[in-house]
C-alpha cells in the first residue's frame, strides 16, 4: 500500500535531490508539493517546485504557502543554494499551473480525504504546517505523521545552537512539536553521518539518463558547500528525511521529548532534546541519531535507474 504524502519544501539544492528521490519511489503516493519561503524567497521556491515537478515528469499539484515566518523576518540562505536556489542548474520553465488553494488548505483537505493516513514530509521551515494547525485545529487528529528535516540534539548549522529549518521559524516549530502529531525528526545528528563522498557521487550519477546531469550538478553543489564546513562529503539533508519515509530502517532513532527555544538570545531555534528524560515528560518525537549510509547510497543508485 503506497503512503499518501505531501512534501512541503523550500527548494533548495538538497530539497531538489530529495524530490528526485521521492518521485522515484514506488512506496510514496505524492498528493501535493507545497512551497514555503526558506532557503530563498517564496516566489523562487515556488518556481523551483513547479519546474522540478515538470522536469521530473509528473503533474502533481503544486501549491504556494507562506512568504516567511509567523513572527520574524525571513532569513534566507542564497550563499548555500545560489540566487536561484538550484545552484548552477537551469531547468525548463514549468507548464504546470500553480494550484489556487494555499498550502495549508491543500494540507487540510488532503488530510480529510486520506482519513488520517496522510504523511507530511517537511524539508524547510515549518511555517505552512503551523499555519494549517492554526487555521484547522483538528488537523492534529488527521495527520498520521510528520517526518521533518530539521533540528539537532547537539549542533547547529545556522547558529551554534540552531539548525536552519527550525531557526527560520522557531515559533512555527514550537506549534508543530506541541500539536501532538507523531513526529520523526531527521536532524543534523543523523544527516551529518550520511555524507556521500566524491567517489560515491560519481558512482551514483554515472548513468546516462535524462536527469543524470542535473542530479550530478546538484550533488556537486552540495559537496562544495560541505567542503566549506570542512566536511569531506555531500550532506543531502532533505533526501534523508524522504529516505526515512521510504525505508524507516535507514535511520536509527530514539523517542524523546523535544521542545523549541523561542526566547533565547543565543539559543533561539534550538531543538531542546531531553535525551535523559530529566523532565519526565512523554516523548513527542522520534529523533534520528544515526543512519545506514550504505542503504542511503543504494537508494540513490536505485533512484537513478528509475529515470530513463
Ligand atoms: O539545515 C538544512 C536544511 O536547511 C535543509 O532543509 C536545507 O534545504 C535548508 O533548508
Ligand atoms: Ca530544505
TrEMBL record:
GO terms for molecular function: hydrolase activity. It comes from Clostridium malenominatum. Pfam families: IU_nuc_hydro (PF01156). Residues 5-298 form the Inosine/uridine-preferring nucleoside hydrolase domain. SUPFAM superfamilies: Nucleoside hydrolase. Keywords: Glycosidase, Hydrolase. The gene is rihA_1. This is Pyrimidine-specific ribonucleoside hydrolase RihA.
Amino acid at each position: 500500500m503506497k503512503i499518501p504524502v505531501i512534501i512541503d519544501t523550500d527548494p533548495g539544492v538538497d530539497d531538489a535531490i530529495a524530490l528526485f528521490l521521492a518521485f522515484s519511489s514506488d512506496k510514496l503516493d505524492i498528493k501535493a508539493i507545497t512551497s514555503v519561503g526558506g532557503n530563498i524567497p517564496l516566489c523562487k521556491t515556488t518556481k523551483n517546485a513547479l519546474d522540478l515537478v515538470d522536469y521530473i515528469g509528473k503533474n502533481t499539484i503544486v501549491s504556494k504557502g507562506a512568504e516567511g515566518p509567523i513572527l520574524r523576518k525571513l532569513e534566507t540562505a542564497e550563499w548555500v543554494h545560489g540566487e536561484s536556489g538550484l545552484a548552477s542548474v537551469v531547468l525548463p520553465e514549468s507548464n504546470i499551473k500553480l494550484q489556487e488553494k494555499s498550502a495549508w488548505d491543500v494540507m487540510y483537505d488532503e488530510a480529510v480525504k486520506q482519513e488520517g493516513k496522510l504523511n507530511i514530509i517537511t524539508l524547510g521551515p515549518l511555517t505552512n504546517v503551523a499555519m494549517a494547525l492554526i487555521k484547522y485545529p483538528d488537523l492534529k487528529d488527521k495527520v498520521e505523521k510528520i517526518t521533518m528535516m530539521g533540528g539537532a540534539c547537539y549542533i547547529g548549522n545556522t547558529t551554534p545552537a540552531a539548525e536552519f529549518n527550525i531557526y527560520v521559524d522557531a515559533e512555527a516549530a514550537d506549534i508543530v512539536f506541541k500539536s501532538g502529531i507523531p513526529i520523526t525528526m531527521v536532524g543534523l545528528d543523523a544527516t551529518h553521518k550520511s555524507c556521500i563522498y566524491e567517489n560515491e557521487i560519481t558512482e551514483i550519477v554515472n548513468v546516462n539518463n535524462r536527469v543524470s546531469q542535473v542530479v550530478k550538478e546538484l550533488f556537486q553543489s552540495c559537496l562544495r558547500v560541505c567542503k566549506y564546513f570542512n566536511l569531506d562529503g555531500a550532506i543531502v539533508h532533505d533526501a534523508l528525511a524522504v529516505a526515512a519515509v521510504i525505508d524507516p530502517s535507514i535511520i536509527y532513532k530514539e523517542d524523546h521529548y523535544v521542545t523549541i527555544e523561542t526566547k533565547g538570545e543565543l539559543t533561539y531555534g534550538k531543538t531542546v532534546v531531553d535525551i535523559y528524560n530529566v523532565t519526565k515528560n512523554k516523548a513527542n518525537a522520534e529523533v534520528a541519531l544515526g543512519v545506514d549510509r550504505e542503504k542511503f547510497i543504494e537508494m540513490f543508485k536505485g533512484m537513478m535507474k528509475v529515470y530513463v
